[in-house]
Design goal:
This protein has 13 helices and ten strands. By secondary structure, the protein is α/β, with parallel strands linked by helices.
Length: about 350
């Protein structure tokens, strides 16, 4: 932990010496939220698309960032990851800010991590995020924690036909052969011909059925997705966000993977960012409160800005990852009844030590 902190600090000190203080101050001004409205038109349009729920829009980097991908197995390094997030990362962020940089830690523990990811793209997503760190970071890009486990090995999404048939010939049980042929379909148009692993929803159409039903139903209460760590909650939330963004009527999609950034860890900063994004989506310049109590009281009113022409879908993944300070996990800030044209999907661990699921049940 100390070695990681020292390595990053030394690198940032070298980089900061290359730039004048005036440039650092200018950087800080550009990073303020209100600066979004002063960006050049093309970039402003891209950011507007992101606020609307289009999460595949590429925003060119304009800031000095140290972005590090943290890699390890999820279960046997939990304590180490938590120690980094609680004791190391906050001080590194402050250190970077003092030097005019933004420090970001990418922890896929709260990203798309399920073995049952619908399109089997878990590995590709992780590798793409590593490449993104390499692309935007001005410092170190990768840290790994090694322990006793090898980690999860995903099924290959594509297997060349010649290799697949060889493997199939080595399977003794007919039932196992049929199972492989059920999930792997040959694409004869590929060169060379390839067997492709089918999306889960192709064979199990009810895989994300509850979330799809919630999006199209007249329900006025949030849908709660709960289950043990690693069971696929985040994957379901990600698929639900993609589904919502493609729905007829063009709803605004507000998505947060809680606990992955400072702005999604404390209830104060979470509510502030949600209200700011809703204001931006609905082109409303009304005042956004600054104190936590005012934000709690105003949050339902901000949700009420949704319209029949542009409904609002709010997805909050991993409520259990909120900092428990200020009663965040008591969830009194969530409205019990949603305003018209608003849908909300929440996910959480069921463990009593977090208390989120128990509060939602009450």
């Amino acid at each position: 932990r100390a070695a990681l902190k020292t390595l990053l600090q030394r690198h940032i000190e070298k980089l900061s010496a290359m730039y004048r203080t005036e440039e650092m101050q200018s950087f800080g001004r550009r990073m303020r939220f209100k600066g979004v409205t002063t960006l050049k038109p093309s970039l402003s349009s891209q950011i507007q698309q992101v606020f609307q729920g289009c999460h595949d829009v590429e925003i060119p980097p304009t800031a000095r960032i140290v972005r590090v991908f943290l890699s390890s197995t999820f279960t046997d390094t939990e304590d180490e990851r938590n120690a980094l997030m609680q004791h190391v990362v906050p001080s590194l962020k402050i250190f970077c800010q003092e030097k005019g940089y933004e420090m970001q830690l990418v922890d896929m523990r709260w990203g798309i991590r399920s073995e049952a990811a619908n399109d089997h793209s878990t590995l590709d997503l992780c590798l793409k995020e590593v490449q993104n760190c390499q692309k935007v970071s001005t410092g170190p890009t990768f840290v790994t924690l090694l322990s006793h486990k090898y980690g999860y090995q995903p099924l290959k999404p594509k297997v060349e036909s010649a290799e697949f048939n060889t493997l199939l010939a080595g399977v003794d049980r007919k039932e196992d052969q049929q199972l492989l042929l059920k999930w792997y379909q040959e694409d004869e148009n590929a060169i060379p011909a390839t067997y492709v692993l089918q999306p889960i929803t192709a064979l199990l159409p009810d895989y994300v059925h509850p979330t799809n039903e919630q999006l199209s139903s007249p329900a006025t209460q949030p849908l709660v997705v709960h289950g043990e760590s690693g069971c696929g909650k985040t994957s379901v939330m990600a698929v639900a966000a993609q589904t919502a963004s493609k729905m007829e009527g063009g709803p605004a999609v507000v998505l947060r993977f809680l606990g992955t950034t400072p702005g999604s860890t404390t209830i104060h900063r979470l509510l502030l960012s949600l209200c700011q994004q809703i204001n931006t989506v609905y082109k409303d310049n009304s005042h956004v409160p600054e104190t936590l109590q005012e934000l709690r009281e105003a949050f339902p009113a901000f949700l009420s800005k949704a319209t029949s022409e542009q409904p609002l879908v709010v997805l909050l993944d991993s409520l259990d990852q909120l900092d428990p300070q200020d009663g965040a996990r008591q969830l009194s800030w969530l409205p019990k009844t949603l305003p018209p044209h608003v849908k909300m999907i929440l996910s959480t661990l069921p463990d009593e030590k977090y208390g989120c699921y128990q509060q939602l049940q009450a």
